[in-house]
Amino acid sequence: MPQLKILFCLLGDRTKASSRVRGYWMAEELEKRGIKCTIVAGGGRQALLKILKKIPIHDVIFFQKNASKWHVRLMGLANSLGKITIFDLDDAPSRINSPVTLKNAGKMMSNASAVMAGSQSLLEYAKEYNENTFYLPTCVKLENYAPLEKKAPGRPVCLGWIGNGPHYAEDLITILSGPLQQTGATLQVRFKLVGACGDRRLYNAFSNIAGVEAELIDQIPWGDSEAVRNQLADFDIGLYPVLPNAFNEKKCGFKALEYMAMGIPVIASPVGVLSNIIEHGKQGFLAGAEKDWNEFIYRLVAQEELLKTMGQKGKEKVVTDYDIAKAAEFLLEIIKMNIPE
Fold first, then answer.
1. pTM of the predicted model, to two decimals?
2. What are the residues whose beta carbons fall under 8 Å from the beta carbon of 289, sequence distance 6 or more?
3. Cβ-proximal residues to 128 (8 Å cutoff; 6+ apart), any chain
């Protein structure tokens, strides 16, 4: 059999988490298995022209979250040439429920040879368009998350969050403001938010909480795995607050997996896939109400041994269930299933 060639058409470059994880990391793993992978990032005119030129010389065209009218047409071209087409989703197609985007995404899913969905909620959603839909969880590249040595003892426990702050501002402020105020009234802690992006709402909400030493970092080089790891290494507890809405229900829990890969216990909202990733009381806690956040933050801050135990269990679960190498093997199986006899 000739060497299989896959064209990855990604929403963004390495600085975009979904493209980095489900595109670049996946391609790197597949290349270890002898697959030729080509990446085109972005949805602008130049990227579209590159995709157009490269479709004829590839066997598989992998569309990661791209759902413009032009991508619909490019998928149609690929299908007409007998290519295997994959549409990949790790979020709802539109954060703002744009009718145009949702319509285009529906066409992409319907016309794809197969759809890969990053959460059970997305799986159910995509199956309405294409029965040939498979659950492909978002996974981590384990070597990028080797835990680093913690700083000197005696420092306050660090409660950390990382991501696109403006996208999560409402979730962060609504869910964490009260518990951090409560925690600061009885304990001395640090709160580190990586990815504030200069959002004044976040600075106003978290900069001046009594008893809480706040550090808000606007940007880091997101495509640099070492830079991400260095920030995560400062966390003792990883926080993942999300409001229970339709968009969050479809998310894939990547932040939780990053924390766990670093051996950091997680406190998260019991929304969507988070209730599957985190087994309550094992790798961390699921906090539904403000009193739950208060209780679980206090328990982890006060019990150093519990921090270590839950962190270790989190690391073990990621190694077993969320290794990008295993995800690449599964994707390759799906591709081979769709190769014509």
1. 0.93
2. none
3. none
